[in-house]
Amino acid sequence: MTRVLILCTHNSARSQMAEALTREAARKAGVDLEVYSAGTEATCVKDDARTVIAELGLSLDTHTSKTLFDVPEPQNFDYVVTVCDSAAEACPVYPGKTTRRHYPFVDPSGGSLDRWRAVRDQLQTQFEAFVAALKNGHRVPDSYTDSPAVTVA
């Protein structure tokens, strides 16, 4: 099983949405992934994140904001993906087997639901491409701009 950690600053929005979207993409693609999200500090999962994920038929109801120390085996991930610049700078060093990727997304906090939806849709495109690459035995995209718009069937 491939282990994936999605890391952001507060684990309240982008990383939470990315976790749910990655799990769903993996489920649809039949890819065996163990997906977690965490923050460099914990706060709470934002209601707007819950709202826009629910619009896709997914739920963040059982999600809580957590730090890296709250996830099982925090130094044992195949992929660590940071989704904000601050987390990329604060991300700890991982052993050689861990592949790191940085996919920076705009923080939708304080914006309209349309802004939240736009970030959600960008996350969905990115992490579907990530899962599709794993499914097809390809290198996962290095950056957001390297990711083709891919729908995982």
TrEMBL record:
UniProt xrefs under InterPro entries? Ptyr_pPase, Ptyr_pPase_sf
**GO BP terms:** response to arsenic-containing substance
Q: Which Pfam families match?
A: LMWPc
CDD domains attached here? LMWP_ArsC (cd16345)
Tell me which residues make up the Phosphotyrosine protein phosphatase I domain: 2-133
The domain of life for this entry's organism is Bacteria
Q: Which UniProt keywords apply?
A: Arsenical resistance, Plasmid
The name of this protein is Phosphotyrosine protein phosphatase I domain-containing protein
